């Protein structure tokens, strides 16, 4: 009777450890997803700023080519 109860206790502890680790993984994945989202927004803003900054330069180059 001792061995089956010991096996059951060890199985329960193993499942508990797996549950704790899965919660930690889930938390880290959510944190990573938020960071990726924030980085994507910053990259989009930087690309828009670069596009706005390059528009006058393009018209200046066109004017120089015409001369």
Structure description:
With 67 residues, the protein is an all-alpha fold. It contains 1 helix and no strands. It has one helix at 2-66. The termini are far apart.
Order of helices and strands: H
Query: Main beta sheet: strand number and arrangement?
Result: none
Please tell me the overall pLDDT: 91
| Structural Rg | 29 Å
Count of alpha/pi helices: 1
Strand content: under 5%
Quickly give the structural class: mainly alpha
**Shape call:** rod-shaped
Query: Poorly predicted ranges (pLDDT <50, ≥5 residues)?
Result: none
Fraction of residues in H or I helices: over 70%
Number of strands: 0
First-residue to last-residue Cα separation = 98 Å
Protein name: DUF948 domain-containing protein
Organism: Streptomyces rhizosphaericus
What is this structure's SSE topology?
Elements: H1 2-66
List keywords for this structure.
1 helix; 97% helix; single chain; 67 residues; mainly alpha
Short structural description:
The chain is rod-shaped and about 100 Å long. The protein has one helix at 2-66. It has one helix and no strands.
